[in-house]
């Protein structure tokens, strides 16, 4: 025996209340991730994401480090990882999905601008 105990065994020995608190904290951490953490969790490299976006790998690295970017750029970045960006405003009364940005980063629909069906 090496004297090491697997974490799963230690966790199983915790009282149920503590296990539940730990599970809640883990879930909360998974809800908040930086862009590079999301990319890594999806098992994507900067190079593969760059190919999808049609940019250089260095551009992906810069985007991941930015603290401020256009909503359209963020939407394209998330879409390239297979996701969909939603912007939610949180108020004491409840959450509101902001949909002004729904069409950003998508090609324009010529039929919509001419009124043709």
Automatic annotation (TrEMBL):
<dbReference type="GO" id="GO:0003677">
    <property type="term" value="F:DNA binding"/>
</dbReference>
<dbReference type="InterPro" id="IPR010982">
    <property type="entry name" value="Lambda_DNA-bd_dom_sf"/>
</dbReference>
<protein>
    <submittedName>
        <fullName>XRE family transcriptional regulator</fullName>
    </submittedName>
</protein>
<dbReference type="InterPro" id="IPR001387">
    <property type="entry name" value="Cro/C1-type_HTH"/>
</dbReference>
<dbReference type="InterPro" id="IPR039554">
    <property type="entry name" value="HigA2-like_HTH"/>
</dbReference>
<feature type="domain" description="HTH cro/C1-type">
    <location>
        <begin position="35"/>
        <end position="65"/>
    </location>
</feature>
<feature type="region of interest" description="Disordered">
    <location>
        <begin position="1"/>
        <end position="23"/>
    </location>
</feature>
<dbReference type="Pfam" id="PF13744">
    <property type="entry name" value="HTH_37"/>
</dbReference>
């Amino acid at each position: 025996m090496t004297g090491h105990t697997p974490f799963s065994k230690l966790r199983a020995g915790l009282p149920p209340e503590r296990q539940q608190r730990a599970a809640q904290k883990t879930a909360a951490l998974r809800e908040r991730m930086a862009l590079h953490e999301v990319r890594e969790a999806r098992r994507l490299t900067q190079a593969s994401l760059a190919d999808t976006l049609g940019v250089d790998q260095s551009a992906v690295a810069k985007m991941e480090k930015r603290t401020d970017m256009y909503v359209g750029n963020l939407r394209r970045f998330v879409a390239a990882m297979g996701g969909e960006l939603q912007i939610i405003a949180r108020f004491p009364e409840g959450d509101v999905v902001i949909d002004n940005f729904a069409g950003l980063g998508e090609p324009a629909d010529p039929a919509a601008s001419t009124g043709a069906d």
